[in-house]
From TrEMBL:
<feature type="binding site">
    <location>
        <begin position="269"/>
        <end position="273"/>
    </location>
    <ligand>
        <name>CoA</name>
    </ligand>
</feature>
<dbReference type="Pfam" id="PF13336">
    <property type="entry name" value="AcetylCoA_hyd_C"/>
</dbReference>
<dbReference type="GO" id="GO:0006084">
    <property type="term" value="P:acetyl-CoA metabolic process"/>
</dbReference>
<dbReference type="GO" id="GO:0008775">
    <property type="term" value="F:acetate CoA-transferase activity"/>
</dbReference>
<comment type="similarity">
    <text>Belongs to the acetyl-CoA hydrolase/transferase family.</text>
</comment>
<dbReference type="InterPro" id="IPR003702">
    <property type="entry name" value="ActCoA_hydro_N"/>
</dbReference>
<keyword id="KW-0378">Hydrolase</keyword>
<feature type="binding site">
    <location>
        <position position="408"/>
    </location>
    <ligand>
        <name>CoA</name>
    </ligand>
</feature>
<dbReference type="GO" id="GO:0006083">
    <property type="term" value="P:acetate metabolic process"/>
</dbReference>
<feature type="binding site">
    <location>
        <position position="364"/>
    </location>
    <ligand>
        <name>CoA</name>
    </ligand>
</feature>
<dbReference type="GO" id="GO:0003986">
    <property type="term" value="F:acetyl-CoA hydrolase activity"/>
</dbReference>
<feature type="active site" description="5-glutamyl coenzyme A thioester intermediate">
    <location>
        <position position="294"/>
    </location>
</feature>
<dbReference type="InterPro" id="IPR037171">
    <property type="entry name" value="NagB/RpiA_transferase-like"/>
</dbReference>
<feature type="domain" description="Acetyl-CoA hydrolase/transferase N-terminal">
    <location>
        <begin position="11"/>
        <end position="221"/>
    </location>
</feature>
<protein>
    <submittedName>
        <fullName>Acetyl-CoA hydrolase</fullName>
    </submittedName>
</protein>
<feature type="domain" description="Acetyl-CoA hydrolase/transferase C-terminal">
    <location>
        <begin position="327"/>
        <end position="469"/>
    </location>
</feature>
<feature type="binding site">
    <location>
        <position position="384"/>
    </location>
    <ligand>
        <name>CoA</name>
    </ligand>
</feature>
Amino acid sequence: MSIDRIRHAGLREKVMSADKAAQFIQNGMMLAITGFTGAGYPKALPTAIANKAKDAHGKGEKFSVGMVTGASTAPECDGVLAEAKALHFRSPFQSDPILRNGINAGEIAYQDMHLSHVEQHMRQGFYGKFDIAIVEAAAITENGELIFAMGIGHGVEAIKNADKIIIEINDALSAGLEGMHDIYDEVGLPPHRKPIPIVGAFDRIGTAGLAIDPDKVLAIVLTSAGDRNSKFAEPDDVSKRIAAQVIDFLDHEVKAGRLPKSLLPLQSGVGNVANAVMAGLLDAPFDDLEGYTEVLQDGMLDLILAKKMKTASATALSFSPDALARFNENIEFLKDKIVLRPMEVSNNPEIIRRLGVIGMNSMIEADIYGNINSTHIMGTRMMNGIGGSGDFTRNGFFSIYVSPSTAKGGAISAIVPMVSHHDHTEHDVMFIVTEQGMADLRGKSPKQRAKVIIDNCSHPDYRDMLRDYYDRAFVASQKTGGVHTPHLLLEALSWHQRFVETGDMRIK
């Protein structure tokens, strides 16, 4: 039973139902709720809060809360709260369709931001006061130390910063998680920050649990429910071709002497394509790999189980159902190979730069000069958010962006004249990869980048259109003396406008 996971006798007295615990949540509160890419989020409280909101709205009363998470949660957290119109503010990353619709309809204020900044913003009061932290845990020790769940995210700062705490103890989580976390909470504030003492990807610098003040605990709710364990699609031909491009490039860099045979620590973003790259490394000519990432997915887990990867550091574990089963079955083997950290550590620019992390992330689109849009559809509609991609892009040894060259059955080109929204600029992006090929942007001017991106990455259906745009932009820019980055300003976003109006970027 879940109550056996509460080994602190005094805290057992605070166990209550989710409905009773939800009564502590009042209209207008700011909540810090754990959860990171479908792991570590509360399973019962959000529904209870949503029901309270619906009851209030039925009586003509106002009820909504602000919510800051680690990253995305799940339908039973973000989804139920958005559906109940119980959110007026949300940050920093999301992926729920109901929440997304509320954001894009202007019903929910949404702040998208780099994940490495979240805890600092909390600590410095940029969000205002946090009334309550709602945290999922695997256990509470005899000494009152909280053992986090499958995702930590901003959980440490949430507990320290909030006035009060509500804890969900989930006995569906393996008890073997205890000992896998590395809790470090000494980042501090300027001007007195000290270096974070991680010089190797698997260095442990903290404790297994976080000491909590029993007096701050309002309630403990017992649950037994799994994380959002979404099944990954089997790698298709496009994903396999993208993965092969990345692996061939890494092999080339090893042979050129720019990478060791074990590579450098790997970061992989979320999604099917990124996971396919990890899966492709199973048969690649590299051994003794290391991971330093934010989310550890199926592909990286399988590398560890196959002994191709020695160790991996993350802030969350986000598995398919099959991978979760493999994780639980092998948890004793994995205990000294996986470490879970607060996201202020997993995404910290200082550490990413020191370790020389190879960052691999997905994109919505890239333009011919190497700027990346990873968040907005047609420039205005939020998809998910920037997450940690910027942390690794700006500070990694390599920054790689991957995507199929087209979407919507060919109606959208992933390579466009100008991105409709900038998330990562040409100054930070080193490589762009589609199933068509790879563009190495190192040491190249904008005009040189345009040639390799168009030639190597664009789909044949769009390649001539891109060349035509660039050639005409170059001629027009010569007349104005602006040939460093040639553009036709009135035409640069016409591809997006054409899709909005006709449903296809192609000229027919």
